[in-house]
Amino acid sequence: MNGISAMSIHRQFLERVFQKLLLNFTWWVNIKDSDGNGVFEGGFLGLDNIGVFNRSEPLPTGGSLEQTDATGWMAFFSLQMLNIALELAKENPVYEDIASKFFEHYLLIADAMSFQSARVNEDRKGKTTNESLWSETDQFFYDAITWGDNHKQKLPVRSLVGLIPLYASLTLEPEILKRFPNFTKRLDWLVENKQYLIKRNIGCMNVKGSGDRLLLSLVSKDRLLAILSKMFDEDEFLSNYEF
Asked: Does residue 223 contact residue 114 with C-beta atoms inside 8 Å?
């Protein structure tokens, strides 16, 4: 291959793709997170037929649609960019800092999407509004419509929308954490100093798994079991027919 190793070619491809994905990620954050709160309201995922409304058109109710699948996808996107950045950092240490940035993006999106059920606002009519996309009552993720800062209504419809957050998971091997001390130092600092993020309803980062692996997951064990109980229920998602 003219003296160029296959690994070098793969790395060049990965770096070219990373730069383009970085532009795409920035577009999502700047355009589709209009409130800057880590909850996303648009973008074409090719999944438009799994929601209640035609997302290519304005909502018939007015307001904005906060999308569980788009937000879950962005958490997944953050983790994949983190993973690519760490791979590229093996030869270019500049990417180690970028990996740390995507870890922070992941934390903020995860918090906005899955924790804020504990934060309740009171609207002008004295009603409370739940800011999270997670329903504590139903133990499932739903889309929501918002009309201004203090008026939100979840759409309690069981669909694949509520399963997309399961995509957002990544296992960090102990070898990776040892190889990139700056990334690990930043991660450890966040775990130590941002306990209000770390101990919430995402995968626990205070406890390492088998072989000292660290799991990054958008859902906690309890929420995972709650979602899977519906996913494997023939009265909910699971078909009783085989392919």
From this structure: yes
Which tokens hold the place of 118?
A: 């504990």
Q: 3-class SS at 70?
A: helix
Q: Are 39 and 33 in contact (CB under 8 A)?
A: yes
- For the segment 139-185, what is each residue's pLDDT rounded down to a tens digit? 999 988 888 666 788 889 898 889 999 999 999 999 999 999 999 99
Question: The whole model's pTM is what?
Answer: 0.82
Under a CB-based contact definition with an 8 Å cutoff, are residues 88 and 180 in contact? no
Q: In the block, which residue shows the tokens 């007015």?
A: 62
- 169/10 Cα distance (integer angstroms): 24
Q: Could you report how far apart the first and last alpha carbons of the chain are, in Å? A: 43
Tell me: the pLDDT tens digits for 83-120? Answer: 999 999 999 999 999 999 999 989 888 887 776 544 44
SS3 content of the chain, % helix, strand, coil (to 5): 50, 10, 40
Closest CA to 65 of 42, 31, 36: 42
Residue 128 confidence (pLDDT): 43
Q: The tokens of 131 are what? A: 């800011």
**What are the angstrom distances between the C-alpha of 146 and each of 36, 135, 152?**
14, 16, 4
Residue 243 DSSP SS3 = coil
8 A C-beta contact, residue 60 and residue 165? no
Tokens of 215: 């799991």
